[in-house]
Amino acid sequence: MRVREAIPGLRLGFFKPGKLNSITDVPGVLVNVTTIQSEDKNVNTGLTTILSRRDWHKYYAFSGKLASSHRPIILTSSAAVGDAYRGTYEYCYRYRLNTEGEMPLVIVPVVGETYDGFLSDNGRFPLTTEHVIDSINNASSDAVLEGCTGGGTGSVCHKFKAGTGFSSRIVKGVDAAGNKVVYTVGVIVQANYGLADTFHVGGVPVGAILQEEQEAAQKERVTTSERTVRKDGSIIVVIAIDAPLLPIQLKRLAKRAAVGLAKVGGYGYNSSGDVFLAFSTANKIPYEELALPGQPPRPVDPMQPSPMIVQMTDNESIDGLFESTADATEEAIYNAIFMGTTMTGLKGRTVEAADIGKIKAIVEKRL
């Protein structure tokens, strides 16, 4: 059960969610989650594919390698990064060759990872390039399964079985002509971080309260030394938006994911591997072509500087996008936890799902 259904009275920011409350509410964005599990329960992994648009191969990100929003974004296990990288290449060589049988694209795959080795036997290397190819082909704008799915299949968040979560926000604005429009901010998280006692829901210290109840029942207390040996994990946050933003603005937007993460209880400890990535679908720039208004695209001459017309959002009007990004990140993490299910994995290790009933009672008592 997603957090909005579980705790209806919980305030999750000023801006309303989109139709699916998912990153796929952003027009054109496609997602697929592929979950890989073995019958003996020792493999619990997968991958999540995010496409900025169906015809991503036709457009170019003009801001460099790290802003290659025209390439698939793959989220997976730490041990599967190489296969995800190669799988993206194999997809392109299988489906995107030109009439001469050559690859016209400069491929710079974007692959993010979190470690799932506590519940999954990474030594089996279960993810293959075929999984990646199928995931790219099957990406859609439909509602996407959350919790123990995709790259988050083996994830643990604030010591609960969690994984993949989504959320979105609708922000009213205007276009370049001054017409009223709505912009959509969509977020996906692969949540694999956090201590139990730092978990908050709507500002309520749920994790600490649950721990106090557990200690009272067991008549023992977690000492400071015991707490310090527990390491934090990592989280990947991908933000999609259809408002026109320049790369430097997207960098600023991505930083606001840290606000949502902090509201849930993530502190970005020394051992944390937190990654925030944002892309905009607004400016469609043909790959290695120059396109000016009223003119057909033509090849770019790298030795002849040419103008490129793109839109950007006025920095004085950007705060609503910042706020909605933080709120959507917070809710996406909640959904990753609330949609998780108890899992027994590698070596019989079991990670319990969050007790939604207990969390609901704790939060509603303090709203």
Automatic annotation (TrEMBL):
PANTHER family: BLR5678 PROTEIN, D-AMINOPEPTIDASE. Gene3D superfamilies: L-amino peptidase D-ALA esterase/amidase. Belongs to the peptidase S58 family. SUPFAM superfamilies: DmpA/ArgJ-like (SSF56266). This is Peptidase family T4 protein. InterPro entries: ArgJ-like_dom_sf, Peptidase_S58_DmpA. It comes from the Eukaryota. GO terms for molecular function: aminopeptidase activity. Pfam families: Peptidase_S58.
